[in-house]
Amino acid sequence: MTAKKLYKIEKIAEVFGVETSIIIQCVRQEWIVPANKETEEFDQEDIARLSLICELRKEFGVNDESVPIILHLLDQIHYLHQKIRKMKE
């Protein structure tokens, strides 16, 4: 199995064009949790979630109070999709 590629905050900011302050805010709010908490490194799933947060805020004008609610609902949808897939097997 291939090891997941992990990124530091500075690399995410550079490669994905997200301001460091936004990444730090998302971590402090616990909207994203580093894949490796000790080294504060993020995987592709974390980056996808970060990208979603940025899109919600910038493109849809979602405020900070609404972000965790939306993320929670999306997590529930994802969980239910997995359950349905398992039931079909």
Describe this structure in words.
The chain is mainly alpha-helical and 89 residues long. It contains four helices and two strands; from the N terminus they run E-H-H-E-H-H. It starts with 6 loop residues before the first strand and ends with a helix.
Which value, in Å, is the CA radius of gyration? 14 Å
The CATH architecture can be given as: Orthogonal Bundle
What proportion of the residues is helical, as a percent range? 55-70%
Order of strands, widest sheet: 1-2
Mean pLDDT score: 95
Task: Provide the descriptors you would attach to this structure in a database record.
89 residues; mainly alpha; Multidrug-efflux Transporter Regulator, Chain: A, Domain 2; two-stranded antiparallel ribbon; 4 helices; 4% strand; globular
